[in-house]
Amino acid sequence: MKNSRYLALLVVVLLLALIGTSVQAQAPIRVALVMPSSITDISWSQSIYEGLVRVQQELGGASALEIAYTEGMFDVTAASQALRDYAEQGFDIVVAHGAQYGTSLFELAGDYPETSFAWGTATDTGADRGFNNIFAYEAAAQEGGYVNGVMAGLLTESNVIGIVGPVPAGDAILYINGFQQGVYAANPDAQVLLAYTGSFGDTAAAAEVAQTQISAGADVLTGTAQQVVGAIDAIQAAGGLWFGTQADQSPNWPDTVVASQVYDWAPMFRDMIAQRQNGVLGGIVYRLTLENGGQFFAYGNFELPAEVRAAADQAIADIEAGVVYPLAFMPSEIFRVAVVMPSAITDLAWSQAIYTGLTNIQRQLGGTDALEIAYTEGMFDVTAAAGAMRDYAEQGYDLVIAHGTQYGTSLFELAPDYPETSFAWGTATDTGADLGLTNVFAYEAAAQEGGYVNGVMAGLLTQSGTIGVVGPVPAGDALLYINGFQQGVAASNASANVVIAYTGSFGDTALAAETAQTQISAGADVLTGSAQQVVGAIDAIQAAGGYWFGTQSDQSVNWPETVVASQVFNWAPTIGQMIDNILSGTLGGEAYTITLANGGLRIIYGGVDVPADVVAAADAAIAGIIDGSITVARELPGQ
Amino acid sequence: MNSTIRRLFGGDWLAALVPLVAITVAFVLALIVGAFVLAALGADPAQAYGAMLDGAFGTSTNFLRVLTRGTPLLLVAIGVCIAFRGGVVNIGVEGQLFVGAVSATAFALAFGASLPAWLAPLATLAAGALAGAAWGFVPGILKARFDVNEILSTVMMNEIAVQLLIFLLSGPMIDPEQVAQGTRVPQSARLPQVTWLAELDARSQLHVGVIVAVFMAVVVWVLLWRTTIGYRIRAVGLNKDAARYAGIGVQRYLALALTLSGALAGLAGAVHVTGAEHRMVEGFAVGYGFSGIVVALFGRLHPLGAVPAAFLFGVLLVGADKMQRTVQVPTATVIVLQGLVVIFVVSSDIFVRRWLSRRQARLAQPSVSAVVTPEVQA
Amino acid sequence: MNFGEILVEALTLTLLYATPYLYSALGELFVQRSGVLNLGVEGMMLMGAFTAIFAIAPAGLGAAPLMGVLLAAAVGALMGLAAAVVNVTLQAEQGISGIGFSLFGLGLSSLLFKVLAGGVIVASGFEPIHIPLLSDMPIIGRIFFQQNLMVYAAFALVPISAWVINRTKWGLQIRAVGQNPAAADTMGVNVVRVRYTTLLLGGALAGIAGASLSIALTGIFQENMTEGRGFIAVALVYFGGWSPWRVMLGALLFSIANNLQIWVQILEVQIGGQPIPPNLLIMVPYILTIAVLIFARQRKRLEPAALTKPFQRGEN
Question: For residues A185 and A576, what is the distance between their CA atoms, to the nearest angstrom?
Fold first, then answer.
């Protein structure tokens, strides 16, 4: 009797232990959200809540992922108490979905080393202060904003577009900046009307701003924060179009909302959960971009013209590839850039590349009212160039670009005299940091990469087996290109013979023509070359019926039947990043390199009918360089 | 103890206790109505209110949180006491609090680091109080000199303060790190540590501001009931014509009441930023002004009555938040509950007044200063 | 656009966006003239705003727009009744109870929005009505005669209110109760009943004001969409010195200042080559309202002497 009672007890205990372990094994992941607005705000808070719910559904519902949330936490003190409470209750991931919660978060995260915290929008995980359980996240709102802007710019019939902003800060301003750039890039004639309501939730104020913009002629609108519902209604009544952000705004106005940039927080949550399983509790900064799937586009029922959709897809692809860089900042007053360059802005090569980059950024920022470009061309005299740079700095230009390696010495001498001015020097990698300079950027092009791709094609296209290279001087950018070109030829056609001749000059077109003709006489049927002198050489190979490969700028414009492809230097993203840095208070110290991977280098084809296998080989080379399976040496053995 | 209460409340402990009972009963009645709301939302009211109690009293941390939340409310409330006692309806405490906090922040960021450690927090608080006073002085002087109604001017000045705050935090005062990181969240840089109020408990963010607030409650009580200035402020509040007849410069004391009220609201903002948050953010202390007005009335417009009232309101705030987290009802439920509590408590006043007047008639004693609702001139 | 065209557009929008202020401030005017301060307008507007959208939205009850307005008025009146019980019968401190009703309305409207609507729902409410002949007049037609029904009704309410208060027996009672409730009482006026009726009316008009926000101005509801307009309405009653006409002037002044600052923003008006920070522009209507009062002294002639004072028989 007694024994059986013990036995029963033992069974019960064992059962309980079993249940305990099985429950433990299947314990759900617990995530808590603390948000400033409501989960029905169709913007900031709704987007993260929906992202988390998506992950919950994937994992199999509430038994696998438990979600708790507290919304409407305007009061930071109340929010910090909520955060601490969730941590106290043993939630695995506690999300502070508002940058304003950061200060409190850092004060409490240390007390809960087993809990992961996440906060945004922010980039600070506190790793430098010893925190290892904080994730940070931010959204590159300007990217989706740019794409929306491109579509808006193409769809507007009145050429007037309105933006209904909440307050000029945070995520909203990033989106608004990106949107404006997209509009200007797609439609330089469009006028953008921007007004703020001064509030995040005042729907009637948003409606009034929208109607005022409509009165002023706007037929396409956008805006951010939960207030925008009022504005969407106004533009719908006026028969216009709307572009949304943060969450999909089309369900309620399917015919008015053309597209919404939607934040997809699900990948971030998936990764956080995976990281936790691997024992990583924090320290990662997530950035929602188009490229990583953190942002996607949701389209409504509006019948978007195919060319507009194509332009949007192109913009997305360009942003993903880095070819287009939407700036996070827009200058509040005119931003003044001066560039000093050795040749002319129409040189089809070196100087034209930087000038095109500048004008692209100028167009993107809204034209000459936003960005002033001053330039001095033909400055092969280094002393004269130094005088020009000093002059520009004296005149208060925000950014003075010394576009020639040869200008470096004088630049480093004058930069300390103008600590408020930002300088850029290329191609170079030295920002003068070791000299104590903090106001010099450096930039260069990985010209060997495109050289390699050009070389691969040249090797396949040559009939005679002889390829000519018309070089200026064996140094700098030209040498990188030529080195890469040789490696490319060797990779695709080991038996081809590359004949290289230097003219000793950058601008002597006649000499370049003569050099080219000499190489043609020696049997070359495919040529390449570098610097502004090459126009002479292209002319010569055209006359001979051969092929040309260009670099620095797109050279096919004048000789479409001769120029197979050009490696184009796309300096716009680099300049954009410099301007972003300057506007955020960093005047120098960074070195940029444009590559095939970051979209700074592009291969642009001309009018030649290139065989498919050659294009395929070029594509394979590009892919190989981007993914690192092909490495192109900057220098050849023996140099 | 008894003698202290007697001195404070006109020598009658029952007169102090009855309002407390009335408020408690009203509080409970409001919660009973709230229970129906909770039940309609599919939540278990018992569980919800259990969580509420647990949130406010469950652990020492929870309890201290009540004090953290109550601290700025108490300071606002005693400022409101001065205004209402002085016959002005200061709806503008919300704006005065913002301006006080942002000015304290600006002061701390500009000068805090260069001040000696004992002076830095004091000077920062003073800067906040001064700025709040200035923001209160404007409607004060408008009322005194131009006869501009203070409800109108303070409502408008609240909106102006909100926009001013956003302007400063997204422009001139923005945290340089927010610019450098490109996130540009509207918030100030962190205050230099020397300007922080000493922390009493990290987990609840409790700081010495709670002592400052209680101390100020006593100071304001002394000011209102033990000084000539206070007597005159109250005289103006009770009956302007009589005060004028007695030779009191009515306009001046109306302006003074609003200014002092603003100073305390400004101090509330400064205390909260130096004690709890350590930087100004967009959304800082939203709603504290209106809650402070409610606290003042819960305390029967008496600075010392505001002390338990602020505590009670803190219980409501902290407890209701916890309730929301536990039973996962929409946060709006918490606001509904707060509204119900305010309505019920304010409605309970009449029963206290009736009881008191009956009792007075029985005892035939002179009126009790703490429970006479002053003439609030609109 | 030239300045004239901008002004026409601005005035057109001013009339439209002044409507919520007109309804709520005129309602508050009745309440105050009877001696009660109702600071709960904000909450009543929010309840009205939600009720109206939920009533007419296809995703809600799908009723006709006018039905939405009526229901909003009914819900507002219901809150007015509650306010009357608290303020008149229970003689509560009016400044505080109003904050209570504002909180309650904010919370309950958000809660109902969450539970009943589940998220943003849309409805098309009132379309602009072009009044024949008049709407074809240049400028005047555009500004005044191409508005929606809610706008016409709001402006019609101004002379009606003035007439009711100054020319009717009920108006006389309201004024008497607001000036000297004890005297009115001895003359046989039921003070409590008059104050109940004004609060019912004030609540109903606040509800309609909310409806005009949600279904005449925007076609949606969002939590806390009034954003302080209820308090501005109360301020406008003081601005107008308790006269319906002057309250209308105040609403128009405030609204046109607000619309013009939006124009200044979108036209990128600069001062000294610098753009004006938007938040400073947004302050302008609030500053202007105060400033106008400094220069045009408030007329206190109409001020109800018993404002905020609870009435109890035999007390005075």
Answer: 14
